[in-house]
Fold each of these.
Amino acid sequence: MSTATPAARLTRRRQVFTLLLLALLLLAMAVASLCLGSTSYRPWQLWAEGSEAMLARDVVLTLRLPRTLAALAVGGLLALAGTLLQILLRNPLADPYVLGTSGGASVGALSAMLAGTTAAVVSLSAAAGAWCSTVLLFLLAWRDRSASQARLLLTGVALASFCGAFSSLLLALAPNDSLLRGMVFWMLGDLTGASWQLALPALGVLLLLVWPLARSLNVLGQGAQVAHALGTRGRELRWLLYFVAAAATAAAVTTGGMIGFVGLIVPHALRLMLGQDQRLLLPAAALGGGIVLLAADLIARAALAPQQLPVGVVTALAGVPVFLWLLQRQAGRA
């Protein structure tokens, strides 16, 4: 996180211009997501008369609009969580899944699927699994009250590994191919039938909760000792960051399953372009995550239409090369 553009360079005009540009890009991607797919429509067709226009409105409003809003919200939540975790752990390669939150959600969701429950129960089980892993991580990592980044990271990695192994066990216990396919699709990340009613308000609330603390986060990003010397309440702030990141990850995973790399790539790319000032980076990450996931979901729907790919496959195929580039870039600086 040393590639900083100094926070002092951020002006009100630059902040407004950048966020306005990202908002326009998000709007353009949302319109493309609504109009393009296995069947494409022009925006003005939605206001025309006739049976074709009615069919177009039905497809857009019933199928594509909820999916578009879900992609926007999930992408924003993952990118926001990634930004906060990279501040919390002071590691630009941290992402929302590194602390085991998504692993807990996976165990909860797959257990519910294996028990033959409804989709609503699967979502609730995923949320419960995410929060159980969060509480467990707290109990283990804060046992010595040190709250160090290293202890938190190592405990999270161990939890994530355990949850991954448990999820594999649940997959092996699937009694038939149909159920196994559904479980694998959930783990790959899929926005088909995703509901935005939880994720979108959660994104707004969590962003409003941390954005006013951006100046303190700028200080915390310089290290715990610097933050303490400047009078920042570091322990309380780290607590807040952790729980907001965990809540954002839980809401995203509950809505769209395991969608990787958005929370890793988007904050890092924005940091390279915009600098490290959290007054700009936090809202930019929320907008940028939505843009990236909307683009990935559009590719997932249109690449092999009418067949649809899990959006998590698209983000992984695009994200792995970028992730490797980031690793190489970091190694070159060491």
Amino acid sequence: MRLTRRMIVIAATVAVALSGVITFGAPSNAEELKKVTVRLAFSYNGHRSPYLLGVDKGFYKEAGLDVEVLEGKGVTSSMQLVAAQQDTFAIIDPPSLMLGVAQGMPIKQVAQLYQTSPNALISWPEQNIKEPADLVGKKVATLQGDMTTTMLYALLAKNGIDSSKVQIIASDGGTRNQTFLAKRTEAITGFPNDSLLSLSDAAEVKLNHFTYASFGVDTMGDGIAAHTETVENSPEIVAAFVKATLRAYDYALQNPEESIDALLKRSPSRKKAVEVEKLKATAALLHAKGSEGDTVGFSVKERWEATQALMKEFGGLNTTVEDVTTYYTNDFIH
């Protein structure tokens, strides 16, 4: 009988449990831990603090892993590092992953955390920007090479707006924020569970925003991606990382202040109250219609098909696949 990867993962889980270990894959000493890395898209922040919490609480260690959580320089860079097997995992959104696969990157999503993308357009309240059409004649600060920027063009195209009538100013993260806060642009791209909250705090005003999803660009956000060889050859490591990460998210959302304390150990200049709100705002992103039993991390095939269609029409995806499971697997979601 041919063993499928899912059967191997289940067998590995059962074998560990029968060995008398209480938690999944827990080794008897530190020398047995498997060292892996996970690359975030950018710097440590509240909505991704569960990875840091998972390290501090020992969730990864109990799963048999020695995890190093690394800051990134953008999603494209993170994908390249995993594709080159310099990192084990990266936090990637499906639109970015599709573009990476189309470029020949051997990567696959092994857990889909954010079922809804938090991509959003943030603006000063006095600008009265409530929909994409209101951006005509306005300046928007964006991140160079970031998916929020790519999807902004898709948002404009989807809503029949000539992008040449919107001045899109791309720069690095720090410059982007300062450009907006100095009111040299009327709007900025970002996430409601991230920059909306930190920029509102810095500006001491409640900024306006609308999500791309509310105007037809409804894709997905953060997921965990790995090299296809890692998925095929080391399923026990992937299973252990996914299981411990989902455990960390579950614990973090129930104990947000504790999760943010893990963040502040690495980034002490962050404001705790703001970062707690970022984490709390993340909870609603983890669930989607069609998910089996509303299981966190599960990929819904129809969502991937719709995202690929949207990326082909508006997002610059020139090469598509017939079977979208090329992009993801649910083998590690239980």
Amino acid sequence: MKRTLILGVGNPILTDDGVGVRVAEAVREALPADAPVDVREASVGGLTLMETMVGYDRVILIDAFLSRGGIPGTIRRLSLEDLRTISPTRHSASAHDTSLVTALEMGRRMGLPLPDEIVIYAVEAENVTDFGEGLTPAVAAAVPQVVAAVLSEIHGHEGVLPGMQTSF
């Protein structure tokens, strides 16, 4: 059996940036206590996020996403390759950290046991800068769909739902 991690990423006090955390919390509540998956929330990036994935075969990551002209609440199911295409710069994330793509490449070079399968659910955000514990209405409306998609992934099905985008 694949060792699976559901990882909700974001800051839950920055409005829509908390969508990944909210989805992870809802997935945990929907799963039986003995479900063979781990569900975690994280407010970290790059290297620390990569370290969180060590030892898992599969990771389903949920995070907020901002794109130019994006419609808030739009859900995208992406691969790591899609993420690599979206963020081609690899060294400009921070002077103190790096992007997840670069961190994973570095971890693989170091021989760390990193997942072969990473699925990313990206929810187009409306507001990730204002302090607030609630999601904007469009992003909040997307949460049940993402939860359903993640639960479908856990049960071995690709979590693509009607209207969901599968690339960027």
Amino acid sequence: MAERTTKRVTPPIASAIERSSAPLPTRRARVRYWSIIGLLGVLSLAFAFGLLAWDNPLPFGTDGFWRIASLRATSIVVIGVVAVCQSLATVSFQTVTNNRIVTPSIMGFESLYVAVQTSSVYVFGVAGLTFVAGTGQFVLQIAIMVGFAMLLYGWLLSGRYANLQIMLLIGIIIGGGLGSVSTFMQRLLTPSEFDVLAARLFGNISHADAADLPVAIPLVIVAATLLVWRAKRLDVLALGRDVSMSLGIDHRRELMRVLLLVAVLMAVSTALIGPMTFLGFLVATLAYQFADTFDHRRVFLMAVLTCFTILSGAYFVLRNVFAAQGVVSIIIELVGGTVFLIVILRKGRL
């Protein structure tokens, strides 16, 4: 009688599955991630070179060519600063609020910027815009926005009844109130004053003053470096308050630190080029889809490259093809708002 032997045969499908807890668990995921990073990097370089070289009247490589290119390089630097600010601030803010719909704009940064600009024209006339121009005023606007944010955070996130949702709700109310006051003052302006003011209330790369960059760049480098350095803690915070506390994270202290860095980045971006409400949301939504990982370091890299590609590409096309660089923010807001509605309709909730 033949001896019966029993063998456990491993199903071929199960054995083929590569199990890992790594941020990019499979080879296919790693190839997909780095392929998209490479594509965005090539597009970013192409658009940046296009902004420097397109319609340059002098031959490539000559001293005159590089002199004209150096004058245009300010726009590239501004786009890079805004890309880092908007992408890192939005991704971090959505992580600590545990909501991928809200953006830091909900805290009233842009409404405060609009109120400052409108008040200066309302009180001093068109000449009032010169009072909010210059490096000193740039630093003052950043200080006001960061101070306002920290006052709100310190008031609503400390104490026994600290609640993040209430803080967001009060941020919406304050932003709406500032917007209503600004609208009231705008109705009392003359048509010429309102025309000049309206141009300042749309985000535009050309609004940036090169003299402000020595202040803006160090602030952005410090805030961005600290956020990237805390990426592992952000991975834990994304699991929620209770889970992060059970894993040893001081949730309230970590929340305050991240919100402070978010406030600095958003204040620099808004004071530099003006409000861009849906840019951060658009970039963060695309970055989550492209990266497809929980690792914030990889999401940050993807978000920055996506933001730079969108901004530089839109600025290059609208400036050189349609001669309408002033409407870059309008196009981005239109696309971002449409994506926002699509996400809301797909999720069915906020």
